[in-house]
Design brief:
The protein is an alpha+beta fold. It is 43% helix and 18% strand. It is built from eleven helices and seven strands. Strand 5 and strand 6 form a beta hairpin. Helix 6 packs antiparallel against helix 11. The protein is globular. It starts with a helix and ends in a 10-residue tail after the last helix.
Length: 274
């Protein structure tokens, strides 16, 4: 076993299938507004009904899932939300960052979001809407962030070497989301090079038509002098309200907010880097 495996990163071949399938159920239910039927879950897992039934019953027994007796459909319980809240409470991240995010949202009038880097993934943890806007983007907490399409993903990728960045992108493929999506490794690398040089990344109708966004990495020093990206702060707006130049003009505000977040970023036991 190499050093990384000893630190808890198990190679794919050592994963436990039942655990992976149970987590797939939880993730699917999180996005299912009207719940899922038993048939939906069997189709999702591509397993026989007996295995799916045991997995669902286990999740029900652990109180992560419940079955609506009227419709027969399955839903997440709020125990999942409770886990997230407990995690955020222990890290103090939301308590310490909300005032900075709120100030930025109100001063720009746009949707401000915070994503956290964990290993080889990036996850949305907070979204704050400006209170002054009648027309607002709807914040999404979808689990997957297409790294080369989102401003958050681009900002994170711009902080690492080219080999690792492209490796992460290729895990989910280069399938475009819009006509403006970057489609080649060469184009992505050039975009990341520009983003790294200027300290922020732009996604303009690359993930969703009519939407532009800017992302700034939150950089801290854990060990020595090398900085590490622990999160990303983004601003997103309708293109009709903010064009590419407007997004770029907002960069100094986001860079300042990212620096302030870096100074209070939790170590993990309540202490910060300030």
């Amino acid at each position: 076993m190499n050093e990384e495996q000893g630190q808890g990163e198990s190679p794919k071949g050592e994963q436990i299938a039942a655990v992976q399938r149970a987590l797939e159920i939880l993730e699917a239910l999180a996005d299912a507004k009207d719940g899922m039927s038993f048939t939906d879950i069997v189709t999702l897992l591509e397993v026989n009904k007996a295995i799916a039934f045991k997995l669902i019953n286990t999740l029900i027994g652990c109180r992560y899932v419940f079955r609506d007796e009227t419709s027969g459909r399955y839903f997440l319980t709020f125990k999942m939300s409770n886990l997230g809240l407990r995690k955020m409470s222990r890290s103090l991240l939301l308590d310490q960052s909300n005032s900075i995010l709120r100030e930025l949202a109100d001063s720009t009038g746009e949707l401000i979001r915070l994503a956290v880097v964990e290993g080889d993934s990036i996850t949305w943890v907070s979204s704050i809407l400006a209170q002054s806007r009648l027309l607002q983007l709807n914040p999404s907490y979808g689990f997957e962030v297409r790294l080369h399409l989102h401003a958050a993903g681009k900002a994170w990728l711009s902080t690492m070497n080219s080999e690792r960045a492209i490796g992460l992108v290729l895990k989910n493929g280069l399938e475009p989301a819009t006509e403006h999506s970057l489609r080649t490794v060469e184009a992505i690398l050039e975009d990341l090079k520009i983003s790294s040089r200027r300290g922020y990344a732009i996604s303009y109708e690359e993930h969703s038509l009519g939407v532009g966004a800017i992302g700034v990495p939150i950089l801290i020093r854990r060990f020595g002098d090398k900085k590490e990206c622990v999160g990303v702060i983004t601003l997103a707006a309708p293109c009709a309200r903010m064009n590419r130049q407007d997004l770029e003009a907002s960069a100094p505000r986001l860079i300042d907010a990212a620096a302030r977040l870096a100074s209070i970023w939790p170590v993990g036991d309540g202490r910060t880097y300030s």
